[in-house]
Specification:
5 helices, Maf protein, binds inosinic acid
Length: 201
């Protein structure tokens, strides 16, 4: 198994990545084995933030690193929360509390918007760096279209999944099993591209 550091402290992401990369011989090591404090995401785009996170994890661990920068774009809010998705309701909360607060904030901000106009999409950018000074990192990107709804449903997934209505399945993302979600999600599609790119290097 090839060991790669996953540049994320998000347990939900670690689970989703594990199910795709373990079968292709990649063992993901959580970055908290090397890093006590997460690097500041100072970029203005998903790709910049993913590069910052991958480079920092590679630097601190001395190993290849994989970073994901992802988020939700809501059309009626001009693309917000976008790169600020993780801290939409404030940056002091963590884990489930943070997810619940972010969902509640979004439902509140969309209250004046009719349900038919609540189109949204998840974006995912993956960056794989062979080492901290890798001048040609692999970059893969994908998105997943849906609608934001008021009532939360489902107990799988993380983040905005309970209020993200999946167009392909007519249910919330949080009602999909991990296997069903990764088959159609932004992260699953970006990972499929990454698997292909990794096989070519
Ligand atoms: P990051 O860790 O800075 O990339 O923040 C990503 C944030 O976007 C997460 O904390 C979630 O709020 C949201 N997000 C990204 N991907 C998903 C997903 O698959 N489901 C639900 N929320 C997601």
């Amino acid at each position: 198994m090839k060991k790669v550091v996953l540049a994320s402290g998000n347990a939900g992401k670690l689970k989703e990545f594990g199910q795709c990369l373990t079968p292709v011989g990649i063992e993901l090591i959580p970055q908290d084995q090397f890093i006590t404090q997460e690097v500041e995401e100072t970029g203005l785009s998903f790709v910049e933030n993913a590069i910052i996170k991958a480079r920092y994890a590679a630097q601190m661990s001395g190993m290849p690193a994989l970073a994901d920068d992802s988020g939700l774009e809501v059309d009626a809010l001009g693309g917000a929360p976008g790169i600020y998705s993780a801290r939409y309701a404030g940056s002091s909360l963590t884990g489930q509390y943070k997810d619940a607060a972010n969902c509640a904030q979004l439902v509140k901000d969309l209250a004046p918007i009719p349900s038919a106009q609540r189109s949204a999409r998840f974006q995912c950018v993956l960056v794989y760096m062979r080492h901290a000074k890798d001048p040609t990192p692999l970059i893969c990107q994908a998105s997943w279209e849906g609608m934001i709804v008021d009532s939360a449903k489902g107990e799988h997934g993380f983040g905005y999944d309970p209020i993200f209505q999946v167009l392909e399945k007519d249910c919330r993302a949080a009602q999909l099993t991990p296997k069903e979600k990764i088959a159609i999600s932004h992260r699953g599609k970006a990972l499929a591209k990454l698997q292909k790119a990794l096989a070519e290097i």
